């Protein structure tokens, strides 16, 4: 869907309206402008909820953080966010290395046999293994085997994606029946897979609760995560004093973290590798840095901070291929969006888009097109080219956008250039109160996997970029897999 929205963006500008009927529910405002996007995400977040997304994902994610209504979100975010503390992230670096090593061993075998490898499948498997361990200490082992639970997990993740590309919840049509009793085979199959996954989650939750060892937050943050047997987020959520919730909410939280943390990272790695496979000079820069910083060993958390160029390569991967490419919201009350004033008619594509702002009625839908924002030629030089070193240079606001303050690299930029550095011209993990809770986790995971890959291999696209193709779900996928020829490095 983000491709036609990009075409209209080029014709009608940073804020335009698609209307399918004269009611707010059938109206979609498409935002590609940093001011309007900042307004929705950061300045007036309470004027909006997740709208269609919540309706679509409710049967799968329930009231987990991503689709959560504002009230549930206010209760659960303060409980879940502290789970991503420093000591835990440091422990997770070990998990990233362990899971990535299994992938590398498998790739060695494939390279020795001269086989082409679908790296998209590989990255999705390794990120599923990692998220299973991180969230509920579950060993999917999907890089090396298949199991009914892996099959069920993939089927549910696929269905979540499939539904998120439909604007009408066709699975709720009463006369078609629901779940196991639906007349639609796809829905019956999905219900069966969901049951397998729910049973597995229930067992895991009951086991964690039977071993409950309550503590306050400070004590949980001080635990020796390197030596405890189960360092998962579930353990943290069960043990956190005052963080109690019912089993259904816990299940929804776990399922949401599984979905949110899986294909986002898999897709980030896929599209970054897609670009590097076509840019040998950029690949060499990553390899030079990885060899210099790691000297052949596994990356630690300190190393991840030193692997600056590798992180910028990933940041550039997220600029060109944002995951997800579109964020959804719905207006809860009458509100006004600011519009950019570039002096062109393009920024006022409809009669309710006055220079003073765009009036939005309650119930209207908002599409934040991160794809358009990140490729907006009024913000970024050569927006369609893969140029990781752009993040080392300031990007002045000289491209025709009168009121964007540009991008300024921070001296110590943390793990990635963020939405504030770029004044909302770049929002790789969203922004404002509903910003991603897993951003540090995801960046560290991706750096470990990418650096271990390039320690050992050169990569090359097996066919043309067009053969890889592109299709959208909740994240961006290839059409035909990312087929890669691996060459072992002599280091
Ligand atoms: C490269 C990887 C990732 C990307 C690009 C990404 C991107 C995003 C974005 C853009 C949002 C904001 C959505 C919105 O405003 O509508 C978000 C929210 C969220 N992400 Fe991530 N994410 C990634 C990895 C992860 C991981 C690893 C986890 C957990 C382990 C995670 C958990 C969440 C959760 C729970 C939310 C909802 C936060 C809230 O509403 O309070 N994400 N993510």
From TrEMBL:
The keyword Heme applies. It holds the Pfam family p450. Its cofactor is heme. The keyword Heme applies. PROSITE patterns: CYTOCHROME_P450. Heme binds at residue 436. Transmembrane segments: none annotated. GO terms for molecular function: heme binding; iron ion binding; monooxygenase activity; oxidoreductase activity, acting on paired donors, with incorporation or reduction of molecular oxygen. Keywords: Heme, Iron, Metal-binding, Monooxygenase, Oxidoreductase. Belongs to the cytochrome P450 family. This is Cytochrome P450. It comes from Guillardia theta (strain CCMP2712) (Cryptophyte).
